[in-house]
């Protein structure tokens, strides 16, 4: 795939422009978005992402188009899992609804920056060390196991990292609008708003660890990796307000993502064997029997897994509403002392 520096510059500039517009048009004035507003912008960004994928297919070929769609679908699913954790964090810090947009916007920008760094590092590693696919594959298999048996009941707002932050920063007990710091009796304190942003930034870093290796298991094109991530993050703020209640019902999303990560991990290991240069594996020669899983199969598998996870979740919570209410009760129980 031939991507010139000019195309990269234009792509990054347009991405920045979208986020600048988002801030001044929707986030700068604190308010809680309506369902209608969130739905319109969610449809817009998803449609834009799909059109971009079609454009890649038409211009560069449908092999690359398929890689983009598989990557976008995977990153979107992982981003929705991000939203679930964001919901827990903002519940834990009791962020007022009208200020949640700003927190989300900053969190999404941090996520894009961190993923951009990881993309550049990943591209360099892949170009110079083909054996990195073994490491990526093993990492995804470990993350798949953790994802399958994890639960979102623990509150990152009260984790070790945030305890460390509170210990080293003077923290105010109350929000002061959407300000990040406040001066009291001549001393500057950070507000719970800044703590929330720090927590979400830390979570973004953790999620980037599984996000980038996962998509590099579907394509080796840094441009596709970047654009799939950018489009997955665009509209995430609106999606948060649109499906906030639905997030509690996606009880099998973690298991679905675990299956996807495991699948991509196996795909990466097969690819590593196919291009093997590690001396102690097959004498440093490629393992020719190792299959290369085609992108069309990857796309179908990922799409089917996401669909099954969503449908199974909705069926489960419809038959057993208590599973939703108990989860909600866990997430909405707040110890006000922990906020300070």
Verbal overview:
With about 350 residues, this protein is mainly α. It has helices spanning about 5-25, 35-60, 60-90, 95-130, 130-150, 160-170, 190-215, 220-235, 235-240, 245, 255-275, 295-320, 320-330, 335-340; strands spanning about 180-185, 185-190. The chain starts with a helix and ends with a helix.
Strand content: under 5%
What strand order characterises the main sheet?
Answer: 1-2
State mean pLDDT (0 to 100 scale): 81
Biggest beta-sheet profile: 2 strands, antiparallel
User: How much is the radius of gyration in Å?
Assistant: 21 Å
Low-confidence stretches are 325-340
- Assembly state: single chain
Q: What structural class should be given to the helix and strand makeup?
A: mainly alpha
What separation lies between the terminal Cα atoms?
51 Å
Q: Which sequence of SSEs, written as H and E, runs from N to C?
A: HHHHHHEEHHHHHHHH
Give me the number of helical elements: 14
Task: Write down how many β-strands occur, each being a DSSP E stretch of 2 or more residues.
Answer: 2
Envelope shape: globular
Estimate the helix proportion, in percent.
over 70%
